[in-house]
Amino acid sequence: MSFSSDAGKSGLDAFWMPFTANRQFKAEPRMLTSAEGMYYTNDKGEKVLDGTAGLWCVNAGHGRREISEAVARQVAQLDYAPPFQMGHPLAFEFAERLTEHTPGNLNHVFFTNSGSESVETALKIAIAYHRARGEGTRQRLIGREKGYHGVNFGGISVGGIPNNRKVYGSLLNGVDHLPHTLNIKLNAFTKGLPENGIELADELEKIVALHDASNIAAVIVEPMSGSGGVIMPPKGYLRRLREITRRHGILLIFDEVITGFGRVGEAFASTRWDVVPDIITTAKGLTNGAIPMGAVFVSDEIHDTFMQGPENMIELFHGYTYSGHPVGAAAGLATLDIYERDGLFQRTIEMESYFEEAVHSLKGLPNVIDIRNTGLVAAVELAARDGKPGARGYEVFKNAYEHGVMVRCTMDILAMSPPLIIEKPHIDQLVGTLENAIRATE
Ligand SMILES: Cc1ncc(COP(=O)(O)O)c(C=O)c1O
């Protein structure tokens, strides 16, 4: 099949692409056709360095045979088993294995199929948990400005990205938002976590004072905000959120769909930054992106609260046809084997400073107003063109792609989140190509 600019005739019309400017893309498609290690190959046969681990998910790099073989074996052996009132061994094995990496007593796993579903699951568990322990008035949810928690109604309600919310009606009731933690004026070009902004966590006290803690179920934040623009938590901020939520009996949910599985070092941001929430949501790196799957990690206390009442009763009326899917579990186990055997979570920390120095070398280039980084994630923020927000970022992204490097642009923010197998020459290629693209863009 060839992809000409005539979308209708070339067969591009039917697929309504997600989060994509469809007409722009179909006029000039960028098609990836295979992948190996750090590189994609496109339909023109060109190699493209994957500077974003796909969509923050291919943490172990592409084409891992252990994963594809495990998937192939599993489809042949047991393609599907219902997860309601039935089980299959791999889902249990995968859950057990995962809890070897979870912080604190987050020893229970609810499987989903995506990050969005993990978020909905976590929010529902939080509200149902309070009700199960006789505090059914705790129903309010607190998210954060610029937060991204997927695209389902709960997720966009607690999320804080205006474009993702504004055309979808009244959303969930009873949601408040903390202020975001991006402060370019004070923290521009900080390496790692910024010094300023811990007091933004105290805004939670104001929301509690307004509604009373007895009405609040949970606070959900990304420990590091990814899709909203790669926004770091100020030093001490997450710990303070933990203190305040604990003091008021409010559950703390960390949405680690991006930060989970090594992105910022350690298995979870929670572990790296030593703050244990009550619930963690994940997806993406859980299966190295190979099979859609998500997982929600829940504390003993929350889980055990549900395990009461008559034993023949379903404890949580929630679940998906594909929760704990055998093929997903097989992919996940093979992925975990790679992470553990190759020490990839540690590798993030080993590569962090080289990556940091490389991306911060872009300081001083035209239009660069901030650079932020932690672990193997970084963002370069460009000044927006007058009246055309996002145009400059897109042009840089396109230029980099045309020169063999894939980064991600969110408006005028260029994000990098490469596979954790990245080597120094790849970092040089990634940052060098981005530098040229920034220089080439007015
Ligand atoms: C923090 C966070 N939560 C949830 C999601 C939604 O995940 P999915 O696209 O798999 O539904 C994402 C996706 O990028 C995310 O970054």
Automatic annotation (TrEMBL):
It comes from the Bacteria. The keyword Cell inner membrane does not apply. Pfam families: Aminotran_3 (PF00202). Keywords: Aminotransferase, Pyridoxal phosphate, Transferase. One of its GO terms (molecular function) is transaminase activity. Its cofactor is pyridoxal 5'-phosphate. The keyword Repeat does not apply. Belongs to the class-III pyridoxal-phosphate-dependent aminotransferase family. This is Aspartate aminotransferase family protein.
